[in-house]
Amino acid sequence: MSRPTQALISIGALQHNLAAVRAHAPQSRVMAVVKADAYGHGAPMVVRTLAQAGVDGLAVACLEEALILRQQQIFLPIFILDGPFAPADLPEISRWRLGVVLHNRRQLQWLLDAPQDFPVDVFVKVDTGMHRLGFAPLELPAVLAHLVHAPGVRLRGLLSHLARADTPEDWYNTHQMDGFREAAAHLPQTPGLELSLASSAGILRLPQSHYQWVRPGLMLYGMSPFAAEDGLALGLRPVLQLRSELIAIRDLRPGEWLGYGAGFRADVPTRVGVVAVGYGDGYPRLGTGTPVLVGGRRTRLLGRVSMDMLFVDLTPLPGAQLGDEVVLMGEQGGERVTVEELAALCGTIPYELTCRLQGRVPRVPVP
Questions:
Q1: pTM flag (> 0.90)
Q2: 260 is annotated as an active-site residue
Q3: Tens digit of pLDDT for each residue in 15-48?
Q4: How far apart are CA 260 and CA 10, in angstroms?
Q5: Which of 12, 22, 94, 283 is the most exposed place for a label (fewest CB within 10 A)?
Q6: Mean pLDDT of 174-202
């Protein structure tokens, strides 16, 4: 591919981060969350790496994401976190040997009514206080009774989600963990039933939430779920590097303007690099001052980000030339621009920035 914009995906960093999950939760199995194209990293490539490193299972948001993985010859256990969206999903779920997370009575009835070719593995989601999805704890006895005796169903256990694990000292975490333990008391005394509560923040800071399965997402990709720390501070390695190249160099005289809306005005002679990346690739539409790396040194964006291009200040980098690499997220020459740093500038979270990356940006595996 001739356009130089690429997302480099570090296989070694993925392996390292999975090992970090196991170090924090050594008694738990790992259900890697690979929804939204593995948080924008490229799900098939990410999953193949995790499978080779011994991950125990996968979690996606919907049937369509699960089928992409099955069609890539990935046969690990896959659980659909949002469950079926329509009765017509269930024959495909059964056919492809997928598991589901049930969170309401409508889904339960679809499952009970649908003849299955193969048993469907089911986790039941209980609402312990996030109030997004899940059965109320008082509903569990009736729901579980239906599932235990239903043909074509293999009850796997109970699952919930912590709302404030990114602030681990918050009292609400204890409230939810207590509620989950109480909910688990409703499970039938059947051998092999399992519990899952912790995602990345819980894995890192709330060991009492680990149970038989943990569900890492953000930390697998080397990013931090905590506002005050980046992934590196947590012993993780960033998996993604967004890079491109200088495709033009311009010289501005004092008083000249640059880009759409004349978003930057030169006060002194200014050397400007044009880079082949923009918001059409998923890079955030930030402005002057945003850090980027050229030649192993930090410099700044100038003016407005365009759909396919942006401007960088080469004035402090007189040796920069056409074709030089520009790193928008990642490391170059010992300097870094982290996803967490950019997310803070955008007033958002790291998840959003990596999930924005568009399909026209090739994901390229690197060591």
A1: yes
A2: yes
A3: 999 999 999 999 999 999 999 999 999 999 999 9
A4: 35
A5: 12
A6: 95
- Whole-Å CA distances, 174 to 8, 171, 320, 363: 39, 5, 54, 40
For 216-275, write each residue's pLDDT tens digit: 999 999 999 999 999 999 999 999 999 999 999 999 999 999 999 989 999 999 999 999
Cα 2 to Cα 23: distance, rounded to the nearest angstrom? 41
Q: Is the pLDDT of residue 115 over 90?
A: no
164 with 173: CB under 8 angstroms? Answer: yes
Catalytic residue at 125?
no
- Annotated catalytic residue, options 35, 221, 283, 351: 35
In the chain, residues under CATH classification 3.20.20.10 are 10-230
Domain with CATH 2.40.37.10 in the chain: 240-337
> So what CATH class is 10-230?
alpha beta
Give the mean model confidence (pLDDT) for residues 121-146.
97
- Answer whether 78's CB lies under 8 Å from 69's CB: yes
Amino acid at 272: V
Q: How do strand 325-332 and strand 335-337 relate by DSSP bridges?
A: antiparallel
Q: Half-sphere exposure (CA, 13 Å, Cβ side) for 71?
A: 8
Write down the architecture of domain 240-337 according to CATH: Beta Barrel (2.40)
pLDDT in tens, 151-168: 999 999 999 999 999 999
